[in-house]
User: Which sequence fits this backbone?
């Protein structure tokens, strides 16, 4: 599998970032759905306890992914022509936008708060100090809601992949999976 993207398929770096992040998003949303539905249990605790660290990891991977998308721009698989292709491009840009905003405002809130910030056991900020209200306000207002909107967009993205495969028969899944397009 070549490292770089080609107009026919995504290369190994793009695929690793896409599927690795998809798994981490699955972890994030499973945890939050469990928290909302069955509440705090030991199992929920595993997900919720790692939520902010996994979120920070997702933010770091997103930055690498955006840089890689920029490097590969021009020789990635192209969008289809017409309105469908435009909507797909808008959908991907919206996914990138929310993948950036959702964890960024949460991280800002964490640094503006007094509970301290840890990244998998590594202390980034000690607990204590004054709360900085303006740093906490955006996430208090929108982190949760934008997080759920991101989930809806991801579901729409996955549905469209299978609409392409089964309804329109112009398979795009093979660009991101397997070794040769159908
Ligand atoms: C892309 C990564 C992330 C996603 C998709 C995500 C998603 C979510 C979702 C869906 C909720 C549930 C909201 C509700 O209860 O209705 C939530 C809550 C929460 N998240 Fe995240 N999150 C991410 C990153 C982070 C990061 C990096 C932090 C901290 C540094 C964080 C801290 C929190 C906290 C404290 C809550 C509970 C309070 C609240 O609802 O705002 N999250 N997140
Ligand atoms: C089962 C889950 C998923 C499937 C089957 C899937 C499938 C695909 C496929 C086939 C493509 C290539 C589309 C094309 O070239 O037009 C793609 C691209 C993309 N997917 Fe997914 N995807 C999944 C999960 C996710 C998740 C969780 C996210 C982000 C939150 C995501 C974000 C993107 C983005 C932004 C692109 C554009 C290429 C890039 O910059 O990486 N996908 N996906």
Assistant:
């Amino acid at each position: 599998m070549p490292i770089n993207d080609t107009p026919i398929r995504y290369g190994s770096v793009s695929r690793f970032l896409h599927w690795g992040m998809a798994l981490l998003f699955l972890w994030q949303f499973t945890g939050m759905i469990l928290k909302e539905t069955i509440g705090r249990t030991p199992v929920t605790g595993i997900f919720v306890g790692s939520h902010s660290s996994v979120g920070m990891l997702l933010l770091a991977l997103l930055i690498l992914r955006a840089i890689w998308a920029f490097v590969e721009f021009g020789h990635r698989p192209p969008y289809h022509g017409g309105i469908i292709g435009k909507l797909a491009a808008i959908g991907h840009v919206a996914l990138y936008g929310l993948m950036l905003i959702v964890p960024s405002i949460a991280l800002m809130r964490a640094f503006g708060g007094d509970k301290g910030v840890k990244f998998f056991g590594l202390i980034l900020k000690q607990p204590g100090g004054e709360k900085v209200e303006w740093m906490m306000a955006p996430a208090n207002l929108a982190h949760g809601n934008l997080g759920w909107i991101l989930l809806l967009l991801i579901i729409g993205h996955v549905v469209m992949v299978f609409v392409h495969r089964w309804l329109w028969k112009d398979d795009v899944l093979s660009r991101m999976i397997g070794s040769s397009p159908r």
Remarks:
- The chain has five helices and two strands.
